[in-house]
Design brief:
alpha/beta; about 140 residues; globular; Rossmann fold
């Protein structure tokens, strides 16, 4: 399948595992230049190595999406690397505290879940939307 992604730049948060990794691999295979982002450097470098082994172009940028300054740096570094940003996939997310019912979360645990899952998506959009040239039709 050819999706016409040659030369497009994709930024994928949470790109080190799960759905984010699958998206990074698929986009890299379709010719997109991929920036994989996550908190864990080792897993990020492994994702990038896999994309490159499959013939794609990829870089890893470590970032915690719950922190505005890190997201701003992530987006700026993506544009510095490849001159544009065409796609953003907000795949970073956490479950919270494993094996603990949500009613038993501490306030700090809940703030962490919302910081990554909700605020993180908003921060990524906040800094990505103004960048040139998102795909037509994606600007609000």
């Amino acid at each position: 399948m050819n999706l016409g992604l040659n030369g497009k730049v994709a930024l994928i948060t949470g790109g080190t595992t799960g759905i984010g990794l699958a998206a990074a691999l698929a986009l890299g295979a379709e010719g997109a230049r991929v920036v994989v982002s996550g908190r864990r450097t080792r897993e990020g470098e492994q994702a990038v190595a896999t994309i490159r082994e499959l013939g794609g172009l990829a870089e890893f940028v470590q970032a915690d999406v719950s922190r505005g300054a890190e997201v701003q740096r992530l987006v700026e570094q993506t544009v510095r690397l490849w001159g544009q940003l065409d796609m953003l996939i907000n795949s970073a997310g956490i479950e919270g505290t494993p094996f603990v019912p949500v009613a038993d979360y501490s306030e700090d645990d809940w703030d962490r879940v919302l910081g990554i899952n909700l605020k993180g998506s908003w921060l990524c959009m906040k800094y990505a939307i103004p960048q040139p040239p998102l795909l037509p039709g994606l600007r609000g």
